[in-house]
Amino acid sequence: MKAITVNPPLNGFEYRDVDIEEKGTRIRILENGICGTDREIVNGQLSSAVPPSGYGFMALGHEAIGEVLEDSGPFRKGDIVMPVNRRGCGKCLNCLLGRPDFCETGDFIEAGIKGMHGFMRQYIRDSPEYLVLVPPDIRDIAILAQPLSDLEKSLEEILSVQGRLYWKCSDGTYGCRHALVVGTGAIGILFALLLRSRGFSVTISNVRDATGLEATIFSEAGIAFFNSSLGYAGLKPNDKFDLIVEASGSDASLIPSLLSLLKNNAVLGLFGFSRSGMANLTSIDLQNIVYKSISVVGLINGQKPHFEAAMRDLVQWKHMWPEVSRSLITREIDVNSISGMSEVMYRKMPGEIKTKIVW
Ligand SMILES: [Zn+2]
Ligand SMILES: [Zn+2]
After folding, report:
1. 229/261 same-domain check
2. Is residue 314 part of a domain?
3. Under 8 Å between Cβ of 238 and 216
4. Nearest bound ligand to CA 186?
5. Residues near 337 by beta carbon (within 8 Å), at least 6 away in sequence
6. Same domain, 121 and 20
7. Is pLDDT of 298 > 90?
8. How many angstroms is it from 301 CA to the middle of ligand 1?
9. pTM of the model as a whole
């Protein structure tokens, strides 16, 4: 079968015939999503990327939907499914209980990233245990459920941290809680939409003006946009946040300025993967974290329940925010288009929210 393969730590990718030994339900891949992690691997920049043992290559891709080719477990021939991308180490209790997002050994494997073939290929075989049903209603945007699953888990974690206090508002909702999402990439936008659909008041920022497409999305979903190119001093003096999610992967020096924007008992969630800089925290910054009961939490990787939650949210968003739902997939590339593929695999395209590869 044809596959998009990589050979980390070398850069580059190939579209070629491969043989891969697998067991499980046979699935024909329909679409893959591309994200920053795929591009880091293709550019030879992800040091944790490693092919599966026994193979001199790795099929890329951790975002996929496919068609089930045979009745199997709870699935019927013709069902559309999405495979879960991280698999447990087989040793620690969290992994054995289906939560490799909290793997204790670090020996988990991850499709198309670490020690497991990814989903950018014509066919996969997989156990029904790792497959999530795609509601037919959202077939066109279902590829977003993989990145969204990470955010469903992240929000669950934030709410679990905030279980330490009364964090709902006097009307029982989160409407009085003000969240700032830093970054307007796919993750930033999906996180802002998720928080909005849970009732939070949401501001999203970038170091430039919003594009026309972003403005359409933010306007329909009721999200405020802030241009932070001159820092956050331009916010209203009392505009502080109960939650800040760093989703841009900016230089680490951004972090101290975000800490100063947090209210008492607030959470700083780190999702973006910073690759440069230093966060210089003063003793006053540390005193503030203590005195204000600030939580800083690392956010990564959703599991099967979060994929299911992501599917439900996408169904809901399609009805609540039709314009948003039509705007999130910004480009489709035929896998056989050599020029198109080499254009999208190495770098993010201007205006891109989500690019998908169609088989
Ligand atoms: Zn990804
Ligand atoms: Zn584990």
Report:
1. yes
2. no
3. no
4. 1
5. none
6. yes
7. yes
8. 10
9. 0.96
